Amino acid sequence: MKPGIHRWSKRLRNSFSPSSLRTQLLSRSLIILAVLLLLIGTVQFIVMKTFLYSNQAETLQSQIRGLPKELLGENSWIIRNRFKNEMGTAFVPPSASPPYDESEVGERRPFFFLPDTSIALINVENELINPSSNESGLPAPQLASEQYSKIRKEWDIQNVRAYQIAHDQNGNEQLLVFRPADGPGGWDLMIQMGISTAPLKAIAWRQLTIFISLSLIALGAGLMFYLPILRKTLNPLNQMVQTVEELDAGKLDRRFDTSLGQSEIDRLAESFNGMLERLEVSFENEREAKEHMQRFIADASHELRTPLTSIHGFLEVLLRGAAEKPEQLNAALGSMLGEAKRMKKLVEDLLILAKLDRTPAVSRSETSLDTLIEEMEPQLQMLAGERKVTFSLAPHIRAMTDRDRIKQVILNLFHNAVQHTDPELGTIHISLAVLGGNWAELRVKDNGPGIAPEHLPHVFERFYRSEVSRVRNRQGGAGLGLAITQSIVEVHGGQIEVDSTPGDGAAFIVKLPILSADVPSN
C-alpha cells in the first residue's frame, strides 16, 4: 500500500473511531438533542393533557348549568323523582307521603348528555343516589366521603370548579365535575357529572406521536447538515495534526495559522507556535552549547597539553643525565614547577566555571564596595610592580555581594590590565562611582595596546585570546579570567562590558546594583 493511501485510510479510521473528537461531538450532540426533545415531548404531553382535561371540565360545567331550572328550585324533590322514574329508584322527601300526584311530577322529559358520560346525585350523607346509565352512558364512579366533603367545602369557600379523576366499576377512567343541585347556597344535593378520559388521552398521544415523528425527521435532516459542518469545523484541527506530523528537529520553523476564525483553535495555534518557538530556541541553544562544549574541551585539552608536554620534556632531560648537573636540574625543576602552577590555575578556573554554571547562587552580605577596594590596594600595588596605579573611589557605596567573589572580579580585571601594559610605563586606573542612585560602576582602565573592534564581541568567551593585541605571553592566562568575571557579575545581577580603541588602552566596566550611597549620581 502506498504511504499516502495508508495515511489517508488511517486518518479515516481515526476520524470515526469511538475515541475521535468527531465521533464524540456527534454522539454527544445527538444525545443532548434527543434528551431535550424527549423532555419537550413529555412537557408537551402533560400540558396538552391538562389543557384537554380543563377544557372538558368547563364543557361539563356548562352542561350542568344547562339542566332544567326546576332541578335547582324548591320543588327539586319532584324532579328528583323524575330521576327515580328514569333511573329506577324512588327518592321520597320527608314531608311527602304516597301516593304521589302525577301532576306534581309534571310531564316527563328525557335528558340528553354527551356519549360516554355519567351523571349522579350525591346526598348530604355523601352517598350516590342510584347511579345508573342510559344506553350510551357510563356508570358513575363513587368517591370517598372525605373527598365529597372536601369538594363541598372548597365550593363554599372559593367556588372552585376543579375536576377529579376516578375509575368506575368497570375500570374506565373518568373526569368528574361537581355542582350544587340547589345552587351555591344549599348542599343537600350535589350533581356529579363525568366523562371518559380515553378520547382526551387519545388526542394527547396522537399529538405526542406527531411530535416524535417530526423530531425524528428533524434529527435525520439535521444530521445530514451537521456532518459537513462538523467536518469543516474540525478541518483546522486536522491541518494542525498534519503540520505536527511533518515537524521534526530540523523543521521547527513551521508555524500554525492563527486567523482561522475560531477563537479556541486560534488560541491553540498560538500556544503551539509559542511551544515551537521555545523548542526552536532550545534546540538552537543546545546546538550552540554543544559547539561551545566541543570548543571548550578542545581548548582545555590544548591548554593542559602544553604544560604536560613541557614537564614531559624536562623529565626526559633529567633522565638523560641532567639530574647529575645541579644547574640543569634546578632549571628543569623550576620550569616544571611553573608549568605545574599553570595547570593548577587552569584546573581551578575550570572548577570555578563549572560551579558557577551548575549552582550560580552565592552567599551575599552587605558590603561597602569602596572599603573593599581600599583593603585590596596593597595587594594590587604589589601585582602592578613598576606600573602606576591610581584610585578614584566614591565613599560609602553599599551593596549585597559575596566579598570573596567581588575580590576575584577586581583581581581578574586588574591582572588582565597588568598583563597587557608595559611593566615600566604602564598605568592602571580604578574608579568607583554611582549611576542613577541604584547602580555602582566599577571601572578598570589601562593604557595598553587596546582591543581591535573585531575582537570586542569575543573577549568574554572562554579560552578566547586575540591574535594581535592580546597574545598570551609566558605569564599570561588561559583565557578564562574574563569568562569567570562575567559569570560572577551576572550572578550578582550586574553587567560587564568593555570599551576599547586600538592604541588607546582598554576599559572594563562593571555595573552592580547597590543598596545606598552617600554621593549624588554623576
Automatic annotation (TrEMBL):
Q: What is this protein called?
A: histidine kinase
What are the residue boundaries of the Histidine kinase domain, all occurrences included?
A: 299-516
Give UniProt keywords alphabetically: ATP-binding, Cell membrane, Kinase, Membrane, Nucleotide-binding, Transferase, Transmembrane, Transmembrane helix, Two-component regulatory system
Q: Transmembrane segments in this chain: where? A: 208-230
Q: Which reaction does it catalyse?
A: ATP + protein L-histidine = ADP + protein N-phospho-L-histidine
**Xref: PANTHER family:** SENSOR HISTIDINE KINASE YXDK, TWO-COMPONENT HISTIDINE KINASE
Q: Name one GO molecular function term.
A: kinase activity
